[in-house]
Amino acid sequence: MRIIIVGAGMVGTQLAKHLIQEKHDVSIIESNEERARHASNRLDCLVIHDAGNSIKALEEAGIARADALVCVTDSDEVNMIICGLAASRYGRTNKPGEPGLLKIARVRNDDYMHLSQAGDKQVLGIDRFIHPNMEAARSIVKAIEHGAMGDIVSFSNTHYELGSIDVEQGSAFDGLVLKDYRNLVTVESLVTLVERDDEVLLPSGATVLAKGDRVYILADGKNLPEIFRFAGGTEKPIRKIGIVGGGRIGALIAEGLIHKDKFSDEYEENEHNRKKRNFLFPLLKTLIPRSSRRIVIIEQDYRLCKDLAARFPEALVLNEDISDESFVNEEQLDDLDLLVTTTNNQELNIITAVYFKLRGIARTIAMVTSSGYATMARQLGVDVVIPMKSVVVDSILSHLMGSGVKEVHRIGDGDVDIIEVEIGKDVPVIDKPIAEFKLSAGGLLMLVNRGGNSFIPKGDYVFSQGDHIVLIAKTGSQAEIEKYFGAAV
């Protein structure tokens, strides 16, 4: 694919790096000279120092031949204007029967969130809106759903989920040879990935788990807490939740925890966003019933506190500085079961989460900007870390990978992709056994959903049209996936 990215910030450069690894033709437009120079030095692609709404820059980047335009500048309005400009001037079909230019805009303002609920009708010529706040909030609520013991990846129309947890010293997983895994864990599940120090392993039966390994396990969501116990994880009731930061993300998390039904209903009405309704704010299975839960929101800004108190009368809203130790002691925050840090300062989020873990709070979740900070935060003991930029990049990639690909999730610091694919008509794998599916860099078919029934495939599985499958593969395997499944990746 030929893809133009407008904006060379962290999201733009992460996205470009991934797409270049997958052999796509990428061009970047960046108005800031320093950012443009930095991107040019780091990335093997065309980088143009100019404004994204410049016709000359768009044409130099190859807009007339491009398959996709992704606008991720710091301005919502600029992103939408560029997409609208491209739609009016370059809206075309490449060839008969082929789609035209795909236009994606990142928007942070929650007021624009409803623009993406216009059904099949385009708004300002934009095909897809990416909402970072919503993406981060739903990732955090999904982690809370499972007791905040590790990161959780959900898949469409199935109860199976991929959960990660660190192996504790002396646990049943410490020293376990994976060929003996099924003797220990009797429910249907699969160890799909192991992170060990800076290494990412696609495990075999001979792999031996050890203290400090982060293991990714696929299982029915209701069985994950039981499996996590073998790794040393202890599920504890979550009755009182503290949210540090009452900005857009903190408010969306509170909305998901307090007004889940009302929030989800807004998405039920929209057929175009049918996929979103299943994962925005599902019923929090591991939490105490809503009537028994307590939500505490801690925010420094007085005006924000007034708005939050009016919006969430069920919650306790405190106009305080979380770094003030006297406030922490006075309000007896040590009795929280979970603390979620969502301020705009990622260092404060990490430090606060670690500090409260040391004070005895069982679970903490921290929102950070990049995957590098996420790695450090996990090593410092934060239970769940949400790297904002990576979440956004994953969402964009899901829209760039062709009609057969439904979702993309990057794990292992971006070295491994989890890809959801719907097998189309007349693709090469149809009626072929799973034994013929082998990726040169290593990969695994983890999950199949056939006719509404989900299962972990065995050796006798045969691919069939309409199967919704989930693959895990090393980054750079997309060309081979295209060979097997015919998806235009």
Question: Could you explain the architecture of this structure?
Answer:
- 31% of the residues lie in helices and 24% in strands.
- The protein is built from 16 helices and 22 strands.
- Strands 3-2-1-4-5-6 form a six-stranded parallel β-sheet, with helices on both faces. Strands 14-13-12-15-16-17 form a six-stranded parallel β-sheet, with helices on both faces. Strands 7-8-11-9-10 form a five-stranded antiparallel β-sheet.
- Helix 1 packs across helix 15, helix 5 packs across helix 8 and helix 8 crosses helix 9.
- The radius of gyration is 23 Å and the shape is globular.
- The N and C termini lie close together (7 Å).
- About 7% of the residues have low confidence.
Search tags:
about 500 residues; alpha/beta; six-stranded parallel beta sheet; globular
What average pLDDT do the residues reach? 83
Q: What is the helical fraction, as a range of percent?
A: 25-40%
Percent of residues in beta strands: 15-25%
- Secondary-structure-based class equals alpha/beta
Determine the N-to-C terminus distance. 7 Å
What's the main sheet like? 6 strands, parallel
- Oligomeric status of the shown chains? single chain
Spatial ordering of strands, largest sheet: 3-2-1-4-5-6
Shape: globular
Counted by DSSP, the helix tally is: 16
Low-confidence stretches: 93-97, 262-291
Rg, rounded, reads 23 Å
Number of strands: 22
Quick gist of this model?
The protein is an alpha/beta fold. It contains 16 helices and 22 strands. The chain has a 6-stranded parallel sheet with strand order 3-2-1-4-5-6, sandwiched between helices.
